[in-house]
Design goal:
Blueprint: E1 16-18, E2 36-38, E3 59-61, H1 63-70, H2 75-82, E4 95-96, E5 103-104, E6 106-108, E7 115-120, E8 123-131, E9 139-145, E10 148-152, H3 160-167, H4 183-189, E11 202-205, H5 219-230, E12 238-241, H6 249-259, E13 263-265, H7 267-273, H8 279-284, E14 285-286, E15 294-296, E16 320-325, H9 330-345, E17 352-355, H10 363-373, E18 378-380, H11 390-398, H12 416-419, H13 441-444, H14 451-458, H15 464-472, H16 477-486
Parallel strand pairs: 1-2, 2-3, 3-6, 10-11, 11-18, 12-15, 12-16, 13-14, 13-15, 16-17
Antiparallel strand pairs: 4-5, 7-8, 8-9, 9-10
Amino acid sequence: MPPGTPYASFALPYPIRVDCFTCTAHLPAPYNTPALYLLTHSHTDHILGLSSKSFAARVVCSPDTKEMLLRHEIYLERAKKEAGEVATRTFAHLKVEGGACSRDLLHAVPLNTPTEFELSSTETVTITLIDANHCPGAAMFLIEGPRGTILHTGDVRAEHWLLKSITRNPFLQPYIPDTEEDLRVLIARGGQTASLTKTLNAIYLDTACMLRGTVVPTKENAVKGLVELIALFDQDTYFFINSWTWGYEDVLKGIARAFQCQIHVDRYKHAVYTHISDPFLRTLVTRDATGTRFHACERFERCSFVDNDLAPRSIEGKKVVYVNPVTMGCSQWECYRMDVRRRLAMGKDVDRLLVPLERHSPLPELLNLVSLFRPRRVVPNTLVPALGGLDWTAMNGIFKECMAPSIYDRGDPIPHELNSSGIVHPSVLDLTSLDFADTDSAMKNLVGDSAELEARKWADDGSMRRRLDVLRGWLGPKEKGIVDRALGRLP
């Protein structure tokens, strides 16, 4: 998991570790030997430790995540292969076929298929994978067992359509509380209390963008707006789509569908996309760079049709427009599109476009997701270590109205060694280690001349200063003072 994940990445109260595969020998039993590992998806920050040749435990994941992980290549490996050198795949040791060392540590479970796993001779859990709308293969995990039920979201984009699908999912429906407000129905119920529905003990929530309070465009709206802008350019214009990580496939699909053409991708992307379960992705990608205006090849080694770092046109003499995904609010997106249209109508040169395709849910969507279930607890999947727990402290206020009524506290079942992981009481904080210049990953991966200037003008860069402004609104007076001093607002 990303830095700052609490409880050493365990889905407590179960000895199940999620998205972290590093050594646990320093933890108390039974957490020094996790009974089971779960992998929500194959992004680099979720597979720490899995490259170790000494790792030998079983890992539950979706079929697509398994396929992507086994085909995973870091950039150095990709470069070696392109140069004709021999390169080994980082995770090849997880599945070895033939001979005495044959093994397959990756246990692929299809979505919406409840599957039992034995944690010990006396304890079994049922695990169901649910689509997380984050990237190919990404899944949420519903864990049901004798110690209660938890939902681990991994990384999730809880758009309206996903919430609707959750309400129709028969494996999640028992955990969606009754919200009946019709007085006649309540009277007809005759005082019968709920017994068919249950309450989630906890949601382990994707909080990567929790401190972004902006309503962002849906993926569909973002792609539709981008396609409309692309259509304004001359038909001999070429486009480089900076799909620098898994999760921007909706952009590729939208462009392919709108312009009825394939997208040129590099060898690595082609090998992955043509071996996962999405038939449209398999159809729309091509290795032939000559047959399309749209390219999503390796950004560090772009093909000659879209490589123009040192000249106004590419090596092939093509006018190139770079498309970069960023985070942007709905109102900014509308203004941005109007600005691009205006510049093009005035005959100005436009060589870069932004598309607000967000892979994580910001705060408004997280509130909707938690409100749907009303769990007993909400546990963050991601914390900013330099905040020393202030972000977790703020969650008490953020999700207070989304939670089930409190019940008698039977004591904290969390061992001290896990409970203190990365958490410091706010009273001792001065936030001096915060990096105010830090921005989100999309801003760090922009491609194209002046792309950063364009993005800083229109996008939410995820800077620490912006996140602190959101954070302080959910803190008490004492903690607000800490934030204000860090922001230079108090002496």
